[in-house]
Every structure is written in structure tokens, then in C-alpha cells.
Amino acid sequence: MSSLSIIAPAKLNLFLHINGRRPDGYHELETLFVFLNYGDQLDFTLRTDNQILIECENPELTTQDNLIFKAARLLQNHANITQGITIKLTKKLPMGGGVGGGSSDAATTLLALNHLWHCDFSNEKLAELGLQLGADVPVFVKGFAAIAHGIGEQLEAVNLAPSWYLVVHPNVHISTQAIFTHPDLPRSTPKINGPWQEAKLYNDCESLVKKLSPEVEKTLQWLLEYAPSRMTGTGACCFASFAEEADANKALNALPAHWQGFVAQSVNISPAHLELNAKLNLL
Ligand SMILES: C[C@@](CO)(OP(=O)(O)O)[C@H](O)COP(=O)(O)OP(=O)(O)OC[C@H]1O[C@@H](n2ccc(N)nc2=O)[C@H](O)[C@@H]1O
Ligand SMILES: Nc1ncnc2c1ncn2[C@@H]1O[C@H](COP(=O)(O)OP(=O)(O)O)[C@@H](O)[C@H]1O
Questions:
Q1: Which residues' Cβ are closer than 6 Å to ligand 2?
Q2: What is the CATH classification number for the domain harbouring 259?
Q3: What's the CA gap between 276 and 38, in Å, rounded?
Q4: Does the annotation mark 40 as catalytic?
Q5: Do 54 and 125 share a domain, yes or no?
Q6: Which domain holds residue 26?
Q7: Which tens digit of pLDDT belongs to each residue from 62-82?
Q8: Given Cys at both, which of 61, 74, 138, 219 links 127, Cβ 3.0 to 4.6 Å?
Q9: From the alpha carbon of 68, which atom of ligand 2 is closest?
Q10: pLDDT per residue over 71-117, tens digit each?
Q11: Do 124 and 189 belong together in one domain?
């Protein structure tokens, strides 16, 4: 196999509780991750030299700062690989929007290159490597919907009924770091005691982000007219959940022109894993 095309799906944090702060500044979380069947597209083609090249319409994403580059370099060094790779990125996910695009791109890169370069590392090992790139990378590498503990890397699988989501990106950028270092962020939500389905669920970042960004507040107010809604991660994207695809699309069609949105279904298994397995079984 010399080439492979794999999706890098979005995630939503259906709830996000912050339980504390570690001495290194990272936060102890409890969060429910679910994948969406919508994401970036990554096309991998093996090279005979050892270069790692990224092609993308957005020149900002072709540099060595891209998590895709960092993931490829990390694996190449870790497994002493002499081959290189050209990766074409078709960016569909809003950047810095709380849907995990960068982390998902990095995870899909680790999963695809593990096969193309014949590294044969377990997903456990890839997740361990991925954690060096970001707290959100392991869940995409493991590829199952989960409640995460710790800083987001300890995963407890869950099985959720599928739902349709309208995800809206208000045209504002919220920096994850700015939220996690803000003095007004609530950091002492108690750990859930008992079944999570019976707990009061929310996103601890939401009220702070709404205060800092009135556009996020307006987005949530608008979505709440249609369905139960919440912010994902540290924002700025917000989502509304629907039982029927048609209702989600109806709301999407009414979306004010200054916001962007997409409709997607939630899935318990990452579409990246489903695609990879389907392609490998074909060979
Ligand atoms: C908040 C979450 C929830 O899923 O998502 P996003 O809103 O970014 O998508 C994640 O935990 C983000 O994961 P990720 O974006 O990979 O985080 P990193 O690159 O490791 O860290 C970005 C910044 O957030 C802080 N951070 C991250 C995770 C965490 N548990 N505690 C933190 O304090 C880090 O200190 C860093 O300043
Ligand atoms: N492949 C990538 N896709 C998107 N952003 C990336 C990527 N690689 C690095 N980044 C950087 O990471 C930041 C956060 O990206 P992203 O994962 O989209 O946000 P979030 O975790 O909030 O969903 C971006 O603002 C960008 O500077």
C-alpha cells in the first residue's frame, strides 16, 4: 500500500466539568466525547525520501507548526523510519472551535502512518505518543466515544444512542489557553458520583466564554429556540441536538449568514477507525 485517504472527524464535548487544576497548570476534567461523521480529509502518499510535506489550500497549515507535521515527525523518529510522506489536507472543520480538528488531524496521521510505514504500534502506544501533542489526541487515536478523566486521556467507553447535531461556529476565535488560564473559570465541580446519565451536566467553560464573547451568547440563544444546546470544549462552536436529521437541516437553513454551521450525526466509533479498518480488510 503506498497511499491512503482517511477522514479526521470532529468531536463534541457533550458535557465538560472541571474538577481541579494540577501543579503543571493542566486541568482535571470529566468530559463526554462523542464523534461526528463529519471532518477534515487527509490523503497520504508515501515518499522515497524522508521528507514530510503538507499540501493545503491554506498556506498557514503547510508549516511545521501543523499538528499533522508534528505527529508524522514524532512517529518517524520514534520508529526510526527512513521513508517520508506527502499529506494533502482538505480542511473542513473550523479551527480553534472546540471540535478538535487539529487533534483529530494528528490522530488520523498517527493511525494512517502506523500502517503505511509498517510501525505496527498498538493504539495504546499511539495514544501515549499522541498525548505529547495534545490532551485531546488520545481519544481520537483510541476511537471510541468515552467519558474522559484526568486531563482527558483516561477513557471510559460509553455507548450512546445516535443523535443529529447542528454545530454552529460564531465567527469568533476563543483560545483554549486563554480560557484555561482565566481567573474566573470555575475549577471545582465535584466528580460525578453515580451514573453520569443521572447527574446535572453542563460545560464549565460556557458562562465565562459567553461573558467574554457576546457572539457565543447570541449563538446559544439562537440555537435554544430550536433544541437543547450547549458549547463544545472551550468554544467557540455550539451545538443543538435533534432526533431527526430534517429538523437539524431546517434550523441550518435558517442560520444567520454571518455564522457557519454543519449538520452531522454522532457515532460511538470514530469514522477514521471505520474507514481504516474497511480499507485494510479490502487488501
Ligand atoms: C478543552 C478541550 C476539551 O476537549 O478541548 P478544545 O476546546 O481545545 O477542543 C481539551 O481538553 C483541550 O485539548 P487540546 O486542545 O488537545 O489541549 P492541549 O493542546 O494539550 O492544551 C491547550 C491548552 O489548554 C490547557 N489545558 C488543556 C487540557 C486540560 N485538561 N487542561 C488544560 O489546562 C493547556 O494548559 C494548554 O494551555
Ligand atoms: N491540523 C490543524 N488543524 C487546525 N489547527 C491546527 C492544526 N495544527 C495546528 N493547529 C493549531 O491549533 C489551534 C487549535 O486548533 P483546533 O484543534 O482546530 O482547535 P480546537 O482544539 O479548539 O478544536 C489552531 O488555532 C491552530 O493554530
A1: 61, 65-68, 95-103, 105, 176, 233
A2: 3.30.70.890
A3: 15
A4: no
A5: yes
A6: 3-158
A7: 999 999 999 999 999 999 999
A8: 138
A9: 1
A10: 999 999 999 999 999 999 999 999 989 999 999 999 999 999 999 99
A11: no
